[in-house]
Amino acid sequence: MKKWFAIFSMCVLILSGCSLTGGQQNKHSSTTTTNESATNEAASDQQSKKAYAGTNKSDVKGIRAVVVRVVDGDTFVARMANGKEERVRMILVDTPETKHPRLGVQPFGPEASAFTKSQLTGKTVTLEFDVQERDKYGRLLAYVWLNHQNYNKLLIEKGLARVAVFPPNTKYVDEFRAAQAVAQREKKGIWSIENYVTDHGYNSNGKEQSSLTGTEKSSTQDHSKGSCNIKGNISSSGKKIYHMPGDEYYDETKPEKMFCSREEAEAAGFRPSQR
Fold first, then answer.
1. DSSP string spanning the chain?
2. Residue 156, pLDDT score
3. Structural domain boundaries enclosing 257
4. Could you give the number of structural domains in the chain?
Protein backbone atom coordinates (compact mmCIF):
# COMPACT_ATOMS: atom_id res chain seq x y z
CA MET A 1 0.00 0.00 0.00
CA LYS A 2 2.79 2.35 0.94
CA LYS A 3 4.47 1.51 -2.34
CA TRP A 4 1.41 2.47 -4.37
CA PHE A 5 1.00 5.70 -2.37
CA ALA A 6 4.62 6.65 -3.07
CA ILE A 7 4.15 6.04 -6.80
CA PHE A 8 0.95 8.14 -6.83
CA SER A 9 2.70 11.03 -5.03
CA MET A 10 5.54 11.01 -7.55
CA CYS A 11 3.09 11.18 -10.47
CA VAL A 12 1.31 14.17 -8.93
CA LEU A 13 4.63 15.99 -8.50
CA ILE A 14 5.65 15.27 -12.08
CA LEU A 15 2.32 16.51 -13.48
CA SER A 16 2.50 19.67 -11.35
CA GLY A 17 5.98 20.42 -12.70
CA CYS A 18 4.80 20.03 -16.30
CA SER A 19 1.87 22.35 -15.68
CA LEU A 20 4.12 25.00 -14.18
CA THR A 21 6.59 24.75 -17.05
CA GLY A 22 3.81 25.02 -19.61
CA GLY A 23 2.39 28.09 -17.87
CA GLN A 24 5.78 29.75 -17.89
CA GLN A 25 6.19 28.98 -21.58
CA ASN A 26 2.75 30.40 -22.38
CA LYS A 27 3.54 33.51 -20.36
CA HIS A 28 6.84 33.89 -22.19
CA SER A 29 5.11 33.42 -25.56
CA SER A 30 2.49 36.02 -24.66
CA THR A 31 5.16 38.49 -23.56
CA THR A 32 7.12 37.90 -26.77
CA THR A 33 4.03 38.52 -28.92
CA THR A 34 3.26 41.73 -27.02
CA ASN A 35 6.83 42.95 -27.41
CA GLU A 36 6.79 42.18 -31.15
CA SER A 37 3.51 44.09 -31.53
CA ALA A 38 4.93 47.09 -29.68
CA THR A 39 8.06 46.95 -31.85
CA ASN A 40 5.97 46.90 -35.05
CA GLU A 41 3.88 49.86 -33.84
CA ALA A 42 7.03 51.78 -32.98
CA ALA A 43 8.45 51.06 -36.44
CA SER A 44 5.21 52.26 -38.04
CA ASP A 45 5.29 55.45 -35.96
CA GLN A 46 8.90 55.96 -36.94
CA GLN A 47 8.01 55.70 -40.64
CA SER A 48 5.23 58.26 -40.17
CA LYS A 49 7.65 60.60 -38.45
CA LYS A 50 10.08 60.25 -41.37
CA ALA A 51 7.32 61.20 -43.80
CA TYR A 52 6.67 64.31 -41.75
CA ALA A 53 10.28 65.16 -40.98
CA GLY A 54 10.86 68.88 -40.67
CA THR A 55 7.37 69.83 -39.48
CA ASN A 56 8.83 71.48 -36.42
CA LYS A 57 12.17 73.25 -36.71
CA SER A 58 13.85 75.48 -34.20
CA ASP A 59 16.90 76.21 -36.35
CA VAL A 60 15.24 77.90 -39.34
CA LYS A 61 17.35 80.57 -40.99
CA GLY A 62 15.25 83.50 -42.11
CA ILE A 63 14.04 86.95 -41.21
CA ARG A 64 11.48 88.00 -38.63
CA ALA A 65 8.39 89.96 -39.60
CA VAL A 66 5.00 90.89 -38.20
CA VAL A 67 1.87 89.99 -40.18
CA VAL A 68 -0.23 93.15 -40.44
CA ARG A 69 -2.89 92.07 -42.94
CA VAL A 70 -4.00 88.84 -44.59
CA VAL A 71 -4.99 89.08 -48.26
CA ASP A 72 -6.19 85.48 -48.63
CA GLY A 73 -5.23 82.00 -47.52
CA ASP A 74 -1.71 82.05 -48.97
CA THR A 75 -0.86 85.76 -49.21
CA PHE A 76 -0.39 88.47 -46.58
CA VAL A 77 1.28 91.80 -45.89
CA ALA A 78 4.09 91.84 -43.32
CA ARG A 79 6.02 94.61 -41.59
CA MET A 80 9.75 94.03 -41.75
CA ALA A 81 12.34 95.01 -39.14
CA ASN A 82 13.07 98.25 -41.01
CA GLY A 83 9.40 99.26 -40.87
CA LYS A 84 8.74 98.58 -44.56
CA GLU A 85 5.65 96.60 -45.47
CA GLU A 86 6.03 93.74 -47.95
CA ARG A 87 3.50 91.47 -49.64
CA VAL A 88 4.40 87.84 -48.99
CA ARG A 89 3.31 84.87 -51.09
CA MET A 90 3.71 81.45 -49.49
CA ILE A 91 5.83 78.98 -51.46
CA LEU A 92 4.59 75.61 -52.74
CA VAL A 93 0.96 76.13 -51.72
CA ASP A 94 -2.16 77.38 -53.43
CA THR A 95 -5.46 78.05 -51.64
CA PRO A 96 -8.84 78.47 -53.38
CA GLU A 97 -9.92 81.93 -54.52
CA THR A 98 -12.04 84.32 -52.48
CA LYS A 99 -11.96 87.51 -54.57
CA HIS A 100 -11.64 86.26 -58.13
CA PRO A 101 -13.60 88.51 -60.56
CA ARG A 102 -14.55 85.58 -62.79
CA LEU A 103 -14.56 82.54 -60.53
CA GLY A 104 -16.06 84.25 -57.53
CA VAL A 105 -15.70 82.52 -54.18
CA GLN A 106 -14.38 78.99 -54.54
CA PRO A 107 -15.12 76.22 -52.04
CA PHE A 108 -12.84 76.34 -48.99
CA GLY A 109 -11.42 79.70 -50.11
CA PRO A 110 -13.18 81.56 -47.26
CA GLU A 111 -12.16 78.83 -44.80
CA ALA A 112 -8.50 79.07 -45.85
CA SER A 113 -8.57 82.86 -45.65
CA ALA A 114 -10.28 82.85 -42.25
CA PHE A 115 -7.84 80.26 -40.91
CA THR A 116 -4.81 82.26 -42.02
CA LYS A 117 -6.28 85.44 -40.54
CA SER A 118 -6.91 83.74 -37.21
CA GLN A 119 -3.47 82.14 -37.11
CA LEU A 120 -1.19 84.85 -38.48
CA THR A 121 -2.70 88.33 -38.04
CA GLY A 122 -0.59 90.31 -35.59
CA LYS A 123 1.84 87.43 -35.11
CA THR A 124 5.61 87.54 -35.45
CA VAL A 125 6.72 84.94 -37.98
CA THR A 126 9.97 83.80 -39.55
CA LEU A 127 10.19 84.01 -43.33
CA GLU A 128 12.45 81.38 -44.84
CA PHE A 129 13.47 81.92 -48.47
CA ASP A 130 14.35 79.38 -51.12
CA VAL A 131 16.40 79.82 -54.31
CA GLN A 132 14.23 82.62 -55.73
CA GLU A 133 13.43 85.30 -53.13
CA ARG A 134 10.91 87.38 -55.12
CA ASP A 135 8.51 86.83 -57.98
CA LYS A 136 8.22 89.13 -60.98
CA TYR A 137 5.66 91.23 -59.12
CA GLY A 138 8.08 92.03 -56.33
CA ARG A 139 6.36 89.82 -53.76
CA LEU A 140 8.52 87.97 -51.27
CA LEU A 141 8.31 84.20 -51.72
CA ALA A 142 8.63 82.41 -48.41
CA TYR A 143 8.02 79.46 -46.18
CA VAL A 144 6.29 80.86 -43.13
CA TRP A 145 7.29 79.56 -39.72
CA LEU A 146 5.07 80.18 -36.70
CA ASN A 147 6.23 78.84 -33.33
CA HIS A 148 8.68 76.51 -35.08
CA GLN A 149 5.93 75.08 -37.30
CA ASN A 150 5.84 75.33 -41.09
CA TYR A 151 2.57 77.16 -41.73
CA ASN A 152 2.62 76.42 -45.48
CA LYS A 153 2.55 72.73 -44.66
CA LEU A 154 -0.14 73.23 -42.03
CA LEU A 155 -2.50 74.56 -44.71
CA ILE A 156 -1.92 71.39 -46.71
CA GLU A 157 -2.46 69.16 -43.68
CA LYS A 158 -5.77 70.91 -42.95
CA GLY A 159 -6.98 70.35 -46.51
CA LEU A 160 -7.05 74.10 -47.17
CA ALA A 161 -4.35 74.19 -49.87
CA ARG A 162 -2.88 72.07 -52.63
CA VAL A 163 0.81 71.66 -53.42
CA ALA A 164 1.74 74.05 -56.25
CA VAL A 165 5.27 73.64 -57.60
CA PHE A 166 7.08 76.48 -59.34
CA PRO A 167 10.82 75.78 -59.67
CA PRO A 168 13.37 76.60 -58.48
CA ASN A 169 11.63 76.91 -55.08
CA THR A 170 11.18 73.23 -54.21
CA LYS A 171 13.01 72.71 -50.91
CA TYR A 172 10.12 71.03 -49.06
CA VAL A 173 8.22 69.61 -52.03
CA ASP A 174 8.57 65.94 -51.02
CA GLU A 175 7.51 66.66 -47.46
CA PHE A 176 4.53 68.72 -48.61
CA ARG A 177 3.43 66.04 -51.07
CA ALA A 178 3.54 63.44 -48.30
CA ALA A 179 1.28 65.66 -46.18
CA GLN A 180 -1.03 66.22 -49.14
CA ALA A 181 -1.36 62.48 -49.72
CA VAL A 182 -2.61 62.05 -46.15
CA ALA A 183 -5.11 64.92 -46.46
CA GLN A 184 -6.34 63.52 -49.77
CA ARG A 185 -6.73 60.03 -48.36
CA GLU A 186 -8.70 61.39 -45.40
CA LYS A 187 -10.78 63.62 -47.71
CA LYS A 188 -10.04 66.77 -45.75
CA GLY A 189 -11.26 70.15 -46.94
CA ILE A 190 -10.63 70.64 -50.66
CA TRP A 191 -10.28 66.87 -51.09
CA SER A 192 -13.85 66.27 -49.93
CA ILE A 193 -15.13 67.51 -53.32
CA GLU A 194 -14.70 65.06 -56.16
CA ASN A 195 -12.56 66.28 -59.09
CA TYR A 196 -12.23 69.72 -57.51
CA VAL A 197 -8.43 69.89 -57.21
CA THR A 198 -6.40 69.85 -60.43
CA ASP A 199 -2.73 70.17 -61.31
CA HIS A 200 -3.33 73.78 -62.31
CA GLY A 201 -5.66 74.95 -59.56
CA TYR A 202 -9.29 74.28 -58.79
CA ASN A 203 -12.05 73.10 -61.07
CA SER A 204 -14.52 75.94 -61.48
CA ASN A 205 -17.18 73.76 -63.05
CA GLY A 206 -19.41 71.21 -61.41
CA LYS A 207 -20.04 70.45 -57.78
CA GLU A 208 -18.14 73.33 -56.21
CA GLN A 209 -20.41 75.85 -57.93
CA SER A 210 -23.18 74.85 -55.53
CA SER A 211 -21.37 76.65 -52.72
CA LEU A 212 -21.54 80.02 -54.48
CA THR A 213 -24.31 82.49 -53.84
CA GLY A 214 -26.85 83.26 -56.54
CA THR A 215 -25.16 86.55 -57.40
CA GLU A 216 -21.73 84.93 -57.59
CA LYS A 217 -23.06 82.11 -59.77
CA SER A 218 -24.62 84.60 -62.16
CA SER A 219 -21.42 86.62 -62.36
CA THR A 220 -19.33 83.52 -62.96
CA GLN A 221 -21.64 82.18 -65.63
CA ASP A 222 -21.83 85.53 -67.44
CA HIS A 223 -18.06 85.75 -67.64
CA SER A 224 -17.60 82.15 -68.66
CA LYS A 225 -19.81 82.62 -71.72
CA GLY A 226 -17.02 84.71 -73.20
CA SER A 227 -13.28 84.29 -72.91
CA CYS A 228 -12.72 86.56 -69.91
CA ASN A 229 -9.63 84.70 -68.81
CA ILE A 230 -6.98 87.42 -68.99
CA LYS A 231 -5.50 87.97 -65.54
CA GLY A 232 -4.67 91.49 -64.38
CA ASN A 233 -2.20 91.73 -61.50
CA ILE A 234 -1.01 94.77 -59.55
CA SER A 235 2.47 94.35 -58.06
CA SER A 236 3.58 95.66 -54.67
CA SER A 237 5.23 98.58 -56.50
CA GLY A 238 1.96 99.44 -58.26
CA LYS A 239 2.82 98.04 -61.70
CA LYS A 240 -0.20 96.79 -63.64
CA ILE A 241 0.49 93.69 -65.74
CA TYR A 242 -1.88 91.35 -67.52
CA HIS A 243 -1.27 87.69 -68.34
CA MET A 244 -2.70 85.70 -71.21
CA PRO A 245 -3.39 81.95 -70.98
CA GLY A 246 -0.16 80.20 -71.85
CA ASP A 247 2.09 82.91 -70.42
CA GLU A 248 4.83 81.62 -68.12
CA TYR A 249 3.34 83.05 -64.92
CA TYR A 250 -0.33 82.68 -65.85
CA ASP A 251 -1.14 79.71 -63.58
CA GLU A 252 0.52 81.12 -60.46
CA THR A 253 -0.92 84.63 -60.85
CA LYS A 254 -3.68 85.61 -58.44
CA PRO A 255 -5.50 88.40 -60.30
CA GLU A 256 -6.92 91.60 -58.92
CA LYS A 257 -8.93 91.97 -62.15
CA MET A 258 -10.05 89.77 -65.03
CA PHE A 259 -10.41 91.01 -68.63
CA CYS A 260 -12.11 89.66 -71.72
CA SER A 261 -9.69 91.21 -74.22
CA ARG A 262 -6.27 92.82 -74.51
CA GLU A 263 -7.96 96.09 -75.39
CA GLU A 264 -9.99 96.02 -72.18
CA ALA A 265 -6.89 95.31 -70.09
CA GLU A 266 -4.81 98.04 -71.72
CA ALA A 267 -7.68 100.53 -71.45
CA ALA A 268 -7.59 99.88 -67.69
CA GLY A 269 -3.90 100.78 -67.58
CA PHE A 270 -2.41 97.26 -67.66
CA ARG A 271 0.54 96.27 -69.86
CA PRO A 272 1.23 92.78 -71.21
CA SER A 273 3.56 90.40 -69.42
CA GLN A 274 6.97 90.12 -71.02
CA ARG A 275 7.13 86.35 -70.36
1. -HHHHHHHHHHHHHHHHHHHHHHHHHHHHHHHHHHHHHHHHHHHHHHHHHHTTTSB-S----EEEEEEEEEETTEEEEE-TTS-EEEEEETTEEPPPSSBTTTBSPTTHHHHHHHHHHHHTT-EEEEEP-S--B-TTS-EEEEEEETTEEHHHHHHHTTS-EE--BTTB-TTHHHHHHHHHHHHHTT-GGGGSTT-EETTEE--SSGGGGGS-HHHHHHHHHHHHTT--EEEEE-TT--EEEE-TTSTTTTT---SEEESSHHHHHHTT-EE---
2. 98
3. 226-272
4. 2
* Selected catalytic residue, list 87, 89, 102, 162: 89
Q: What is residue 61's predicted lDDT score, i.e. its pLDDT?
A: 87
Q: Domain check: are 68 and 201 in the same one?
A: yes
Q: Which is the catalytic residue, given 86, 87, 97, 162?
A: 97
Q: Where a domain ends, among 179, 211, 243?
A: 211
> What's the mean per-residue pLDDT of the chain?
78
Establish whether 97 is a catalytic residue: yes
The CATH number of the domain where 150 resides is what? 2.40.50.90
Please confirm, yes or no, whether 177 is among the known catalytic residues.
Answer: no
139 assigned to active site:
yes
Say whether pTM exceeds 0.70. no
